[in-house]
Amino acid sequence: MRAAPGARMKDPAEDLFPGLREDLDIFRSGTGCILQDGLSGKNFRIGKEAFAILCCLDSGSFERIAIRAGNLCGTAVTTNDVASLANFLSTHGLVDSRRTGDPPAKPSGLMGRLPILRLLSSLSFIRVPLFCPEPFLKLAWPVVGPIFTRAGLCSILLAGLCGTYLASRQWDVFSTTFMSFLSFEGALVFTAGIALLMLCHEMGHAFMAHKFGVRVPVIGLAFMYFVPVLYTDTTDAWRLQDERSRRLIDAGGIIADLSVAALATLTWSFLEDGSFRSLVFSLATISWIASLAVNLNPLMRFDGYYLFSSLVGVENLHPRGFALARWHLRECLFALGDQPPERLPAMHHAILLAHAYASWIYRLLLALAIATAAWHLVSKVVGMALFIGYLAMMVAQPVANELAAWRKRIGDIRASGRSRYTGLALLGLILFSLIPLPHWVAIPVVAGHEHETVLHAPASGFLQQLHLVSGQTFHSGDVMAVIKSPEIESGMDLARLRIQLLETRIRRITADASDRSLVTVLGNELETERRSLKNYEDLLADMVLRAPFDGRVGYVDPELTHAMWINTEAPLAYLHSEDGGRLRGMVSEADILQLGPGFNGRFIPDDPLLPSCQVVLERLAPMPAAGFAQPELADSEDSIVPVEQPGIADDTVVPHGNWYEAGLVPPGHDCPDTSIASKRGIVRIHAGYSSILSAVFKRIARVVIRESGF
User: Fold this and answer.
1) Quick one: average pLDDT of 578-584?
2) CA 666 from centre of chain
3) How many CA atoms are closer than 13 Å to the CA of 287, on its beta-carbon side?
């Protein structure tokens, strides 16, 4: 057994071996044994040489223990092996400090200096025992036992396949059921489903342990970073000699989850809409997600971690992997020449390293997610304190511990040749982060004019006159086209005829008694017909299309001919003012402070056939836009402006977050042709120079100031 580099080794000349704690349980396992620490909930497997040393502790000195242990196990045992085992036991707190005279170990690094971190660490995982399930397991086993047989699991698998097939036949209903959980009642049903599933998961472990004769002393409630979860104590499973039995106990919760998912999916297809069907749906969906995304995750210390450990044949993946990864990191950075913490086969060596690095990355992302959730779920001041505290405990504390280990070996690090290259690389990264780099801001825009419109016929008809030529100028009120609508003319004739008939009947009121009784009705009908005639006359006047402003004809449909039938949807022409073109866009909150009127940029149309042009930022809105009337900026999947929800009153869209309206103009008349319609594109503006470090600092400061409410 080798000690980690830099660890303090016991002097082989010491007379006495430190005594083990009296509360430790020792179980034989193959040729070695397992040390079970009930206080920390950890188990330590040691080999036959170490077990022989423990059997000879009463021999006194290290030398006599080594001689007796070698005779007992039949292999050579040295005093260094005895000292290494003593150091291992002391490091993991398995020795009786009252016998050694050493004070209890104190937390190191940031944890030892900051009481708030020790408090958060103590609150990060709290166990509350609830009940002993042994009586219930014995009572329910005759009923539940058949489920944990091969025939029972095959039946559940068949039920799951049938349920999946039936659910796929109603997939539109199944997928839209998620929306029902957005209500208060749906949230209660969803929460009840999670609680029921957690209980089934833990009972799966308990029943599987009971099947193999392992005692389950307690099922309790644990709080992981204030999130309640159930736990089952199956520590005695380490006493089993059969590796397959231990794997099945580890997989018992996943088997229960998948069984619940299969049965719930099948049951859902036969239920009517209601709360019970929603509960069954939540069990079906949460079971699949919990089993695949959480419990089977080998990077978290849940079922998947222990199953993966058992499958690859490497126990204590995290502590051994982290020790190996720290050694590997130091060797890559400094080439200290230390021996690895333990000699492993090449395959196990690669698995431990890959698992350790993946776990570090996963823990970093998880720490950020937990800290962010703590920030948003409580008040801002407390949330900020929890955010900083959790990042300090879960990220800064391990980094500080590793830096402290480097500081202790600063002499070896300085003597290493590779340290110079590592230092130069670090210095290069720091300098690169401080170098001012050009900063470009991309503004999504729509190119157009201050006044622009597309001519449409107000009603279907024949094109009688056309006074439109591409490129010609016009003045407000000029006639652009005249359209003749037989429908409008026939409607006007019919309205005039009805008016004449009603006026005649009203004049005959004195001669006809029946007409005199209908004088009010006839008067109302006459007024309605006159309004109808007026509407027809206004529509007929609108059939003479006039220019709404001074400008130029940008585009005319080349297929327009005299007497051609025109409908209301076909565009006749595009008219725009002669202002050289304008661009309307949106600037994000992150870029608003870096821009101002007068900044130059370049407009790049989305259409690659159109040329780009120089533009100048003319104005920026002082306040964020509640909405903007440029739906072209958000009507595609690659739009820069994220849309929160569509407008209701008009065609505006609501941007997600704070976006500011911007107006840009070309310095001349070199803007790309906008005669067909408004053109989407991007304006790239050079917003000066900024280093990576300053950009990160500004973004962090902006978020802190915004969220803290200062």
Assistant:
1) 73
2) 41
3) 28
SS3 (DSSP) at 55: helix
Return the number of other C-beta atoms located less than 10 Å from residue 33's C-beta: 20
- Helix, strand, or coil (residue 612): coil
Per the CB < 8 A criterion, the answer to whether 1 and 78 are in contact is: no
CA 121, 123, 125, 131 dihedral sign is positive
Query: How far from chain centre, in Å, is Cα 305?
Result: 23
Structure tokens at 93: 């707190």
Q: How far apart are CA 556 and CA 455, in angstroms?
A: 10
Q: 323 vs 189, which has greater pLDDT?
A: 323
Alpha carbons 209 and 222: distance in angstroms, whole number: 20
Q: Provide the H-helix boundaries in 212-316.
A: 243-268, 275-289, 303-312
Yes or no: say if 96 and 18 are a contact pair by the CB < 8 Å rule: yes
Query: 131 pairs with which residues across the strands?
Result: 219
- 3-state SS string for 198-218: HHHHHHHHHHHHHHCCCCCCC
**Helix and strand numbers, DSSP H then E, in the chain:** 24, 22
Q: Where are the alpha helices (DSSP H) in 92-183?
A: 97-100, 109-113, 115-123, 134-144, 150-169, 171-176
Residues constituting the chain? 710
Residue-wise pLDDT tens digits, 129-173:
888 888 899 999 988 888 888 888 899 889 888 988 888 887 777
Cα atoms in the Cβ-side hemisphere of radius 13 Å centred on 106: 8
Give pLDDT tens digits for 422-455: 889 999 999 998 998 888 888 888 877 777 788 8
The amino acid at 66: A
> Token pair for residue 529?
């017909």
Q: How far apart are CA 288 and CA 657, in angstroms?
A: 34
Indicate if the alpha-carbon torsion angle 351, 352, 357, 363 is positive or negative.
Answer: positive
Question: Under a CB-based contact definition with an 8 Å cutoff, are residues 138 and 239 in contact?
Answer: no
Q: Which two tokens stand for residue 381?
A: 């001041």
Check if the beta carbon of residue 502 is closer than 8 Å to that of residue 519.
no
Q: What percent of the chain has pLDDT over 70?
A: 77
Q: Which residues pair with 664 in a beta bridge?
A: 583, 617
Q: Which amino acid is at 281?
A: F
pLDDT band, residue 120 (cuts 50/70/90): low
For residue 344, the model assigns a pLDDT of: 81
Place of tokens 């998947």: 304
Residue 675 pLDDT class (50, 70, 90 cuts): very low
> Tokens at residue 4, please?
């980690």
Smallest CA-to-CA distance from 696 within 371, 386, 443, 437 is with 437
CA distance 65 to 16: 10
211-215, 529-533, 669-673: which range is least confident on average? 669-673
Residue pLDDT, tens place only, 609-646: 777 888 888 888 888 877 665 666 665 455 567 766 55
Instruction: Identify which of 561, 576, 577, 632 has the alpha carbon closest to the alpha carbon of residue 455.
Output: 576
